[in-house]
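thought: fold this chain, then report.
action: predict
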Amino acid sequence: TVMLSRGKAVVSTQSTGKRAMISKEEDCFKLVVKNTAGTEEENTETFTFSEPQMSRFVSEGANLVLQRLCVLHGAPSKMSFTAFATDNSLTTVSYAPLESMTVSIQNVTLETVGLERCVDNGDKDPTSWNIYFLSDGHMYTRSQTGSPVYMKIKELPENFVKDEDADWVFPDMGKGALHWEDDLEMLSHFLDRKEELQEDHVNYMRRHPELKAILGDFLQFLLMRKPSDVIEFAADFFSSYSTSAQMKPSFAHSEHVNKSAIKSE
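observation:
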């Protein structure tokens, strides 16, 4: 973060971030955006969109998959979808093929597949990127129109596969251990889901106070009888609440008391 102090630029070590989560409601989609500064949450914004508005929506993650599908199947002359703009409103994003380009990486001559991605900014000039991929889907270079900064690989990927006879060869990515606790995005989803479930469970128990009474009665009766077969005992106990269960002596298995457990006390 860069701040101005008395005409001088001061670099702050405090990081800023933004987390966005979209969920499907009954008749709409809800977008929740949380802005953070350092470890503290500054504010939360909520946006709603109708189903027709989201009919051709492409998220940032799906955007990467879509680009590689264009490499695999070839991009049509032009296609357009709906995506989020920087102000969290919906905008149009379009894709169009670029002329292929022959490149040399570590003395290996390769043919690349080009794709242009353009985001409509309303009254402002559109933002566009030129992206070139290797034949197996690895990104070779990515540049934004009007920006002097671009990304480009210098070495062939270790798992790059070149097969002149095959139309498409998926790279062998291998399967590594999943350390989701170290992944900020996965950890964020886990914590959000955990908080959501806890709140849902608490609300359910508040709406059904009889649940705590039933479980309390069962636990008390269980400790008094101390049956050797807890599963059968529980089946007898809760079957008394069922209107469709066959008539039989109540708590039949509860009569088989674990006498040895009682004597040990």
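thought: worth noting. The mean pLDDT is 79.
final: tokens above.
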